[in-house]
Structure to design on (1041 residues):
């Protein structure tokens, strides 16, 4: 029986090659797009699920809260948290913690930038890091031992053959400014690509290494530890999390007696499942909503492909009604007919699926390069994916075959068997609905894609408020050599200006300062940025009123020479947005204003506004420019921005490299280009836009395949009618007009439906942007015209051919 | 074998109501060869469809082998039809994608018969209708007469007790028509009940009894004089 069905399915396919091809190509493209998108989304959601007992591992994430300014979420926790958790919860089986320390490593004479993990006791057992060489129990027992990953071993020791040869070699690691020697005692398997914590270099945590580090202390004040717990399988983690605030309150030292309790800096701890860190962690930059958006697109494309299949199958119903009627006459029941046609379309879906998998396999390298991801299909490693893909084929086959299988099941054989010609069967209205549905989705996607890309383009042209060309940013310039290093650079003719600050544009600032507004009352919050007086000139940020800061004493809040003491008063700058929140109508009005400025809850100075700079972007370009206050703090300006001569770029860079080697011999120079940093801000959006465009084009291709097949079919049906019309005097243009109009109608209806949906969605989407485009009608009209044109081009060949046929062939046709 | 009692069929569309069969009373015995004649549109095909359970009557009784099947469901009818009734049509209704052999085998596919037995039965019936040498041809490669012989073979391969034929010779020239009629006759002689619609008086002569329909009524019933 199955062989019989296979045979007839195969022969029916062979007899209608065009239809079979269009059907299969449409479905395969749709499936390939669906698989590519869901693979990416799946990949994003499956980070860090490869650890042993991943589902029981949580990271303790601390959010530092301030009564008057925004909370600061971090991925870290203070040191005492470990003991607190260990003593309070019997459900905690193990705790591991480490410090991630980005630094410079020296191997032989070569410097490398590398993140070093300083692992506390129990780390190796907790993460179960497999070693390819060395003994994992012993590797860190020696405080000067270091474990490196296989890929680091191959980078550092280029002619390594056996990994065991690397054991015993020494490398130096810059820790707090001192080069420390380590001996390689283990080579670990390369970390997974999908982990938030790549462990490429692990050393044992040694308290002495961090003596005197400003950011490190044993108490509650510093927050350096990545802390992970593993709980027993049945522990209620939510309940644990709920108990944390009470425990913290009891454990943390009380505020100084004279401090207002409402103004205390506080700590909130969250337990983040290790698998959630990549997307939801406090340090995550992932955009989960765009992942869901992509998933929605995947399903829409699949829907288009299934509609396509339905439609082409329904169009061909006439060709096989006779077969079905005969089968019924000789005894086939409804269920058997259903089974046959469902089976046929499932088979068809599986063949398309195979084709789709080939397409996916071929396009994956490009897709990965584009997404900067490492996605692969490995059915052996992930049998579940195989099962899901098979289910996908089954589901698509069943839904795509459902309509014509049902149609055939309820076909009355008598109606077919007495007819010689196979008449246009019922369902032609239904088919039109399907075409309209298909184009509605395609047009909506296209409209969204066009506006999204326009918005991204618009955002990338937004006026930054500063000149981002020819700027290099160097970080980590220590205060003691800051001035001399700057002078060395400026002595080169290729470096025209150098400016210093604690952070640079696009990074945002972490400081929130409170200033008493003009009218008094509640203090208002401004973003604070420690700068050198040279900051605004290197970025070419113009003044709106007043003057810039200088190196004169009254302009300096904290001097390098005064051992870290803030002064009680200093001149400051604000931006135009700052003038507004302080209650001044114009920037000029703010000049000369003197107000209390709180650097922190317990530290304040008297600030005198001497100048107002024009607004410039400092945070994410998506958000509006925030009010800012700028003051000279010579202790906190490690970022140096260089304006270089565009024609002598390379020369300027070698000057920088040379000076760096002289001043910081044991640190690797890392510089960034401001244009690149600005571009990185758009990169996610741009990638999203490009992907949207790509998949929209696929949706169109599938829809047009369907339209093409349908046109072939409809025109074949109308050949006779057209012949008669021509006999009666219709000319070729009349016929063409008639047919083109017929194919335009579903597209026009689709436009009417798609428009409102797309616009409603876009309106919502654009809310996330502070600077956004208007939703004008013109681009939408462009999309509509383009769709009509594409539709016409698709059917034009058929229309032309049938319009030109001599009427006699048309009439004889039967 | 079957009995129609006051059986009517009315087609209703939005505006018009067509009475295709009007209180028909007919009885057909096992082993009979009955011809149905009448002008175009008088209801012959409608009658045959109801007898063949492809359609159901609007009112009246239809007793088939002592069962009143008038109110039966599709599935029940399909089950009875499968085991008892074979069909032959004017337009042969062979499936273009299947060979001669496969077309005939189709009638056994839904009967739970093992493949080897199916092959044997198909071979036997192909011999009987003289189409064995064309077993693996496609329908489009056969003449009309040959196609109709395949259709006859398909109608009888399941050992159906009754064959319903709607103008089986309508698309054939007289020589081929004669062939098919002779085949039906020999089937009848082996005991198969045959009900045939025809416009040809000559072909009606093969039957033992002729029912004349006019405008949905039975007008006359002629019994052919025994030879
Ligand atoms: N599906 C239908 N809907 C409406 N009316 C129908 C339908 N089928 C048949 N009729 C009508 O019923 C009447 C009988 O039709 P039927 O096909 O039985 O005639 P016939 O005797 O077989 O004619 P012919 O010799 O031309 O084949 C006709 O008037 C026809 O128009
Ligand atoms: Mg008829």
């Amino acid at each position: 029986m199955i062989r019989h069905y296979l045979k007839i399915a195969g022969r029916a396919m062979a007899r209608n090659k065009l239809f079979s091809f269009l059907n299969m190509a449409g479905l395969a493209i749709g499936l390939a797009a669906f698989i590519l998108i869901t693979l990416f989304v799946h990949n994003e959601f499956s980070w860090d699920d490869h650890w042993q007992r991943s589902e029981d591992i949580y990271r303790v994430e601390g959010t530092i809260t301030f009564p008057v300014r925004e909370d600061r979420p971090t991925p870290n926790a203070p040191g005492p948290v470990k003991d607190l958790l260990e003593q309070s919860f019997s459900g905690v089986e193990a705790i591991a913690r480490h410090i991630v320390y980005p630094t410079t490593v020296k191997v032989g004479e070569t410097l490398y930038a590398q993140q070093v993990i300083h692992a506390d006791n129990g780390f190796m057992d907790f993460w179960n890091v497999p070693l390819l060489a060395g003994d994992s129990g012993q590797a860190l027992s020696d405080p000067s031992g270091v474990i490196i990953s296989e890929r680091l071993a191959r980078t550092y020791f280029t002619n390594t053959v056996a990994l065991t040869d690397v054991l015993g070699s020494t490398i130096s690691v810059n820790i707090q400014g001192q080069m420390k020697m380590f001996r390689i005692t283990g080579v670990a398997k390369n970390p997974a690509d999908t982990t938030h914590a790549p462990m490429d270099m692990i050393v044992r945590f040694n308290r002495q290494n961090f003596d005197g580090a400003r950011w490190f202390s044993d108490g509650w004040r510093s927050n350096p530890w990545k802390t992970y717990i593993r709980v027993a399988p049945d522990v209620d983690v939510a309940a644990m999390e709920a108990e944390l605030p009470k425990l913290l309150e009891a454990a943390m030292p009380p505020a100084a007696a004279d401090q207002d309790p409402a103004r205390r800096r506080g700590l909130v701890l969250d337990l983040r499942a290790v698998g959630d860190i990549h997307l939801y962690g406090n340090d995550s930059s992932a955009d989960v909503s765009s992942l869901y958006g992509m998933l929605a697109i995947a399903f829409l494309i699949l829907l288009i492909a299934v509609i396509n299949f339905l439609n082409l199958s329904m169009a061909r119903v006439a060709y096989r009604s006779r077969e079905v009627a005969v089968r019924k006459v000789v005894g086939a029941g409804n269920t058997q007919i259903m089974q046959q046609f469902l089976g046929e379309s499932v088979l068809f879906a599986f063949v398309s699926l195979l084709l789709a998998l080939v397409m996916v396999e071929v396009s994956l390298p490009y897709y990965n390069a584009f997404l900067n991801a490492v996605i692969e299909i490995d059915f052996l490693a992930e049998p579940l994916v195989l099962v899901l893909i098979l289910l996908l084929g089954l589901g698509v086959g069943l839904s795509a075959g459902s309509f014509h299988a049902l149609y055939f099941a309820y076909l009355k054989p008598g109606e077919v068997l007495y007819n010689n010609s196979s008449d246009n069967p019922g369902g032609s209205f239904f088919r039109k609905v399907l075409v309209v549905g298909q184009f509605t989705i395609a047009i909506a996607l296209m409209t969204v894609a066009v506006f999204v890309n326009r918005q991204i383009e618009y955002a990338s042209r937004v006026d930054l408020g500063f000149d981002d060309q020819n700027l290099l940013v160097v970080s980590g310039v220590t205060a003691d050599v800051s001035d001399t290093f700057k002078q060395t650079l400026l002595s080169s003719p290729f470096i025209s200006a150098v400016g210093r600050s604690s952070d640079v544009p696009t990074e945002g600032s972490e400081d929130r300062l409170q200033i008493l507004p003009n009218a008094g009352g509640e203090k208002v919050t401004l973003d604070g940025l420690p700068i050198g007086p040279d900051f605004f000139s290197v970025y070419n940020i113009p003044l709106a009123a007043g003057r810039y800061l200088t190196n004169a004493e009254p302009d300096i809040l904290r001097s390098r020479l005064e051992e870290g003491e803030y002064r009680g008063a200093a001149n400051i700058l604000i931006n135009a947005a700052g003038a507004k929140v302080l209650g001044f109508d114009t920037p000029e009005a703010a000049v000369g204003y003197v107000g209390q400025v709180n650097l922190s809850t317990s530290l304040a100075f008297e600030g005198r506004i001497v100048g107002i700079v024009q607004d410039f972007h400092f945070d994410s370009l998506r958000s509006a420019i925030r009010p800012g206050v700028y003051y000279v703090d010579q202790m906190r300006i490690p970022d140096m921005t260089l304006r270089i001569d565009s024609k002598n770029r390379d020369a300027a860079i070698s000057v920088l490299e040379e000076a760096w080697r002289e001043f910081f011999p044991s640190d690797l120079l890392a510089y960034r280009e401001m244009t690149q940093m600005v571009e990185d801000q758009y990169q996610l959006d741009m990638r999203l836009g490009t992907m949207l465009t790509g998949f929209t084009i696929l949706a169109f291709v599938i829809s047009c395949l369907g339209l093409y097949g349908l046109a072939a079919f409809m025109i074949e049906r109308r050949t006779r009618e057209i012949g008669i019309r021509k006999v009666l005097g219709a000319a070729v243009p009349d016929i063409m007009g008639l047919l083109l109009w017929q194919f335009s109608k579903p597209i026009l209806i689709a436009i009417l439906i798609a428009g409102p949906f797309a616009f409603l969605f876009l309106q919502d989407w654009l809310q996330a942007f502070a600077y956004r485009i208007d939703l004008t009608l013109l681009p939408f009209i462009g999309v509509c015209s383009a769709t009509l044109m594409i539709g016409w081009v698709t059917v034009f060949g058929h229309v032309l051919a049938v319009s030109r046929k001599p009427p006699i062939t048309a009439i004889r046709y039967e | 074998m079957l009995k129609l009692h006051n059986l009517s069929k009315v087609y209703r569309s939005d505006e018009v109501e067509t009475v295709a069969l009007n209180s028909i009373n007919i009885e057909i015995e096992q082993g009979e060869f009955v011809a149905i004649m009448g002008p175009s549109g008088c209801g012959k095909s409608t009658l045959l469809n109801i007898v063949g359970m492809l359609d159901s009557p609007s009112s009246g009784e239809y007793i088939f082998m002592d069962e009143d099947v008038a109110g039966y469901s599709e599935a029940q009818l399909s089950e009875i039809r499968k085991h008892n009734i074979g069909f032959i049509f004017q337009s042969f209704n062979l499936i273009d994608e299947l060979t001669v052999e496969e077309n005939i085998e189709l009638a056994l596919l839904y009967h739970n018969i093992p493949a080897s037995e199916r092959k044997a039965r198909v071979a036997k019936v192909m011999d009987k209708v003289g189409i064995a040498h064309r077993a693996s041809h496609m329908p489009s490669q056969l003449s009309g007469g040959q196609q109709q012989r395949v259709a006859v073979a398909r109608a009888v391969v399941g050992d159906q007790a009754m064959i319903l034929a709607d103008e089986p010779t309508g698309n054939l020239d007289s020589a081929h028509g004669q062939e098919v009629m002779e085949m039906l006759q020999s089937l009848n002689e082996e005991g198969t009940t045959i009900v045939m619609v025809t416009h040809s008086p000559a072909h009606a002569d093969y039957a033992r009894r002729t029912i004349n329909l006019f405008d949905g009524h039975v007008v006359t019933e002629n019994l052919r004089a025994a030879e």
